[in-house]
From TrEMBL:
This is Acyl-CoA dehydrogenase/oxidase C-terminal domain-containing protein. PANTHER family: ACYL-COA DEHYDROGENASE (PTHR43884), ISOVALERYL-COA DEHYDROGENASE, MITOCHONDRIAL-RELATED (PTHR43884:SF12). SUPFAM superfamilies: Acyl-CoA dehydrogenase C-terminal domain-like, Acyl-CoA dehydrogenase NM domain-like. GO terms for molecular function: acyl-CoA dehydrogenase activity. It comes from Nocardia arthritidis.
């Protein structure tokens, strides 16, 4: 097999790779032990999620052994990668909210902590409620997957969409509450915003997901 795959998190330290390739037109998984035919090309110099180091993997006539060939994916199989993506944004949102709350409690404005200002209280109530709803939807999707229900994938699609949007909203509020202090590179507040924005770009992006969800709700088929 020859080709390349972009954005492979952990590629630099992986002892094993799980590769999905077309065999006679059918998607098939193979286990691959990295050797001289597999090279890591550093491309990960990003604004956010820098620690994931999702580099490019290049394959040059890499042998796909039948011994390590898996079966083709089938209907109802649990989609592992999409299932994990909402958790990334939810974790970022949780961290952003924690940093926001800590700053609001400790920063004194006009003789009182910033947390005493009503606009901060109202905005925090709004994002925390949305974040709780996003967590609940994600838990619902995982429960449906555990039970083998076909509805799990549409639920996880909505979960990623909501988690991505909420994470950005929480992080943006963190910057507003953090003010100039939160805008400094040394502050975690600005990093949360950069990380949250990255979540929206992971496949599938929020724009693509919105289109899929909208077509489903409106009963629009891709064929028409």
């Amino acid at each position: 097999m020859s080709g390349a795959k972009r954005f492979v998190s952990g590629a630099e330290i992986a002892d094993y790779l799980l590769v999905n390739a077309l065999v006679d037109g059918v998607p098939t998984f193979f286990g691959v032990v990295p050797d001289a035919t597999v090279s890591v090309i550093p491309i990960w110099d990003t604004l956010g999620l820098r620690a994931t180091r999702s580099q490019l993997l290049a394959f040059d006539n890499t042998v796909l052994s039948g011994e390590y060939r898996g079966r083709a994916p089938g209907p109802g199989d649990f989609a592992v990668i999409p299932a994990g993506l909402p958790a990334i944004s939810l974790g970022i949102a949780d961290a952003a909210l924690d940093a926001l709350v800590e700053h609001a409690r400790s920063r004194v404005i006009l003789g009182k902590p910033l947390a005493h200002q009503q606009w901060v209280q109202h905005e925090v109530a709004d994002v925390q409620t949305k974040l709780a709803a996003a967590h609940a939807l994600y838990d619902c999707g995982l429960a449906e997957a555990d039970e083998g229900l076909p509805s799990f994938f549409p639920t996880l699609v909505r979960s990623k969409y909501l988690a991505n949007k909420v994470a950005v909203e929480v992080a943006q509020l963190g910057v507003r509450v953090g003010g100039a202090s939160g805008y400094l590179k040394q502050s975690p507040i600005q990093r949360h915003l950069r990380d949250a924005e990255a979540g929206q770009l992971m496949a599938y992006s929020t724009e693509v997901l919105a289109g899929e969800i909208g077509m489903e709700v409106l009963g629009i088929s891709e064929k028409h």
